[in-house]
Every structure is written in structure tokens, then in C-alpha cells.
Amino acid sequence: xxxxxxxxxxxxxxxxxxxxxxxxxxxxxxxxxxxxxxxxxxxxxxxxxxxxxxxxxxxxxxxxxxxxxxxxxxxxxxxxxxxxxxxxxxxxxxxxxxxxxxxxxxxxxxxxxxxxxxxxxxxxxxxxxxxxxxxxxxxxxxxxxxxxxxxxxxxxxxxxxxxxxxxxxxxxxxxxxxxxxxxxxxx
Length: 187
Ligand code: SF4
Description:
The chain has helices at residues 21-27, 32-39, 70-81, 91-95, 109-118, 160-171, 181-184; strands spanning 9-15, 40-44, 58-64, 67-69, 83-89, 136-141, 151-153. It is of the alpha/beta class. It has a single domain (9-104, 138-177), classed as 3-Layer(aba) Sandwich (Rossmann fold), CATH 3.40.50.700. The strands form two sheets. It has a five-stranded parallel sheet with strand order 2-1-3-5-7, sandwiched between helices. Strands 4-6 form a two-stranded antiparallel sheet. It starts with 8 loop residues before the first strand and ends with a helix. Residues 18-19, 21-22, 64-65, 90-92, 97-98, 156-157 line the site of iron/sulfur cluster.
């Protein structure tokens, strides 16, 4: 009797309020991406899938970026509902980091004024068609403040090697050892 091949992990990556640098570092995995492609199905990702809706029954999801607006919050809640292991991917997801700098201002009005009026080259105005720009949350929040997180992968961005060391054990059903400065240093 022949045994059936092991089930491929359903793998996702999500981009919230971040600069995409963490995803760029993920793409730096180079040949490890071929190993990954053999062992996972990428079911949702800004860099590896055309899926528009976050799917059900995801095994692992790397989440880049902080939670800064209503769309980020909605996606974070949805992915938590449908993902076994959520990984806070990079310093923005873990601490709010760069997008969190706007928390120095109270409320969102000063930020919107600065972005859409003061810094406009000419004729600054707020985007006023509904749905064009998601509402900002009053504060930018790290991911673990809005949903439970299973693993933290720091770095700005995490190096490709650190990403590989975190992901490779998951492919064989083990939890990575996030220990020491090689795996845990911020920045
Ligand atoms: S952690 Fe750094 S590289 Fe990653 S999204 Fe934030 S600013 Fe960009």
C-alpha cells in the first residue's frame, strides 16, 4: 500500500501598516523559496497570490505592519479567525514602530491635516468619496493588542536568514526556537 504525500501547509502573508520591507526581506529567501513552494500552498499574499479574500483554514500567516486603520483591523480580526498560527512579522507588527510615530499626536485630525493639506503641493483637500481611504484608528496599535499572536519575529526588517530559521521548523511540524540576539534583536 502506498502512503499519500504529506498535506501541504496553507501559508499566507499579510501586509497591514508597514513599508513592505518585511515582505522584501521574505523575497530575499532566494532558493529557500523553492523549498517553501514544494511544502506550502500560498493561499493569500501580496507577493505570491492573487486571492482577494482571506481564505479559511490557513495554517501559518506572517503579518507585516501595525494596525493603523479600519481595514487593517478588519483583516487582522478575520485572519485570526481563520489561521492556526499567526506570526507577528517585523517590528511594526510587534511594537507599531514607524507607523506608531503618529501616536505622538492625539487623535487623527492633525495627521490628516499634515498629510492632505499642509504637505500638498497645490490645492490640498481631504479624500471625500466614501471608501477611498479607510478611516484611521485613533491610535496605531501593535498586532498583539488587537488579536492573540502565536509567534514574534522581530527585525526592521527581519533578515532573510532569521525568517528562514523561523519558518523551516514549521514545515516539519515543529515550533522554532526564538532565542538569542540572532533571532530576537529589534531593528
Ligand atoms: S518593520 Fe521595518 S521593514 Fe518591516 S514594515 Fe516596519 S518599517 Fe518596514
